[in-house]
Amino acid sequence: MRSSRDWEAPSAGARFAAWAGIAFLHVPVAIIVLYAFTTEDRSYDFPPPGLTLRWFALAFERSDIWAAMRLSIGVASLATAAALVLGTLAAFALARSRIRGKNALTLLFVLPIALPGIITGIALLAAMKLVGVEPSFWTIVAGHATFCMVIVYNNVVARLRRLPQSWIEASMDLGADSWQTFRRIVLPQVATALLAGGMLAFALSFDEIIVTIFTSGHQQTLPIWFFNELFRPRDRPITNVVAVLVIAVTLVPILLAYYLTRPATERD
Amino acid sequence: MAAAAFATASRPLRAASTFFFRRQALAVYLLLVPPLLWFGTVYLGSLFALLAQSFYAIDEFTATVVPRLTLKTYAQLLTQPANLDIVLRTSEMAIAVTIAAAVVAFPIANYMARYARGRMKAFFYVAVMLPMWTSYLVKVYAWRLILAKEGILSWCLGALGLDGALAALLRAPGIGGPSLSSSYLGMFIVFVYMWLPYMILPVAAALERVPANLLSASADLGARPSQTFWRVMLPLAMPGVAAGSIFTFSLTLGDYIIPSVVGAPGYFIGMMVYQQQGTAGNIPLAAAFSVVPIVLIGIYLALARRAGAFDAL
């Protein structure tokens, strides 16, 4: 006799598989963090012979890393700003409307993340070659803004669709005009989605390499610095430290974005 | 004072707001103008430029692009066996990675969607999202360290006394190589790792919506757990798997960094695009090569749509 309880408690195997999967996802990142502190600077012997903070001090003095970091932050800030404006407008337009061609537009706005990044990259490059635009800081920003917009759009559209229409009706019934309803009901609800979308867009842009390689000239963003180091390793310990820095810089906005958009069931 | 100032300052806003509230269609079109202008020129314009470039060809003597429409580049792509090999190899890898990601993702998604509660559920979602958003390059770099000849994985296997098994696996034809970091097997592991969260999240979303009483009903009617899994749970989770597979398939098709860092000898589509536009300077061939994943993904999306993948996105 089989009872429904079989489906209520996980078997030991199911529990083990789930935790093993989570471990699989985290071990590589943990290893990178560990290697940033190793005293060994040539090979990747495991386990590390000793731990030190020396490489952080050395990386701190490198001007090329600081320059790459500044460039990446500049690109990410501008791309995020553009994405916030464009993505929010698109989300407000398409969240509830029933205009003709809405499905086509919705598909169009997710295309940059549905197609592989290399297509966005080579397409931008092909267009730059045809029009005669030289790669620069601004071509990197333009490329990033295009896929960052999708992130903002997705976040805001999801929140707008979850906003109960009855709240807006109630506000108007109670005598608020459309502006007051927008300012006091819609905007506060959307604000956290905007913030979360912006954070994710920033993290995505800060870390982007696939499109950036095609749209940058001699500019070296932090991912490009890292990419060069992958193929021509010169300072392995410094690379390890930069890896940890990149993880740290992207971790904060991602955790904040999650906190701002977590479902109501998890707020206990 | 302040309130009065606020009132006067926002009067035009109020008027505009009321105006557009009454003409919602107009408001929608006006809102769409800036994003569409941007998308139309920068993104769609670029895609058309890409398509146009793929119909140009390179002059063999001067090595410059001749801006005249021709099918020469596509003929070169589709008739040279080496190029067809690249397309085939990339597609095989994308399919293998998609299947493996679905198999590995399912137990994790199942546990987080149906068993974990409250804080534990939140923990699982964060634990899947964090590695997904962690720097792509850092993860590739980590795997290079793990798979290297004297790296962590071979150390662990050695400590477990399994180095013989690894050597046997690397001798296997087709997937093997001198070390894990230069074999298709290693590349496959890295791909599965990289795209796993993209599979877990949609599958979990689909499983969250499976009513528990359907599974109880199946058990009450005498189905074994395996029967309930194959006949009830998997069909209901399928839209999620299809949605996740769009990511795993598409991301594998276009990637050029993983095949070049965890390098097996054979070329992949992404590497070909990268190399043709860079060192070879043959933008038309690079463009034609990048049309291949677009076509493959189009076919895949059509199939996924039939499986109901878009209901779970």
CATH-wise, what's the superfamily of chain A? MetI-like
Could you give the distance between the termini of chain A?
Answer: 38 Å
Question: Count of helical segments of chain B?
Answer: 15
What is the element string of chain A, with H for helices and E for strands? Answer: HHHHHHHHHHH
Give the assembly state of these chains: heterodimer
Folded structure, characterized:
The complex is a heterodimer of chains A (268) and B (313). Chain A is 74% helix and 0% strand. In chain A, helix 3 crosses helix 10. Chain A has 268 residues and is an all-alpha fold. Chain A is built from eleven helices and no strands. The two termini of chain A are 38 Å apart. The longest helix of chain A is centred in the first third of the chain and has 32 residues. Chain A has a single domain, classed as Orthogonal Bundle (MetI-like fold). Chain B is mostly helical and 313 residues long. Chain B is 77% helix and 1% strand. Chain B has a two-stranded antiparallel ribbon with strand order 1-2. In chain B, a hairpin with a 6-residue loop joins strand 1 and strand 2. In chain B, helix 5 packs across helix 10, helix 5 crosses helix 12 and helix 6 packs antiparallel against helix 10. The longest helix of chain B has 35 residues. The two termini of chain B are 50 Å apart. At the A-B interface, helix 1, helix 3, helix 4, helix 5 and helix 6 of A face helix 2, helix 3, helix 5, helix 6 and helix 7 of B.
Secondary-structure map:
The complex is a heterodimer of chains A (268) and B (313).
Chain A: H1 12-35, H2 54-60, H3 63-94, H4 102-114, H5 117-131, H6 137-162, H7 165-173, H8 178-206, H9 210-215, H10 222-231, H11 236-261
Helix pairs in contact in A: 2-11, 3-6, 3-8, 3-10, 4-6, 6-8, 7-8, 8-11
Chain B: H1 2-9, H2 11-22, H3 24-54, E1 57-58, E2 65-66, H4 72-79, H5 81-115, H6 118-133, H7 136-147, H8 152-159, H9 163-171, H10 184-208, H11 212-220, H12 225-254, H13 257-261, H14 269-277, H15 283-306
Antiparallel strand pairs in B: 1-2
Helix pairs in contact in B: 3-15, 4-15, 5-10, 5-12, 6-10, 10-12, 11-12, 12-15, 14-15
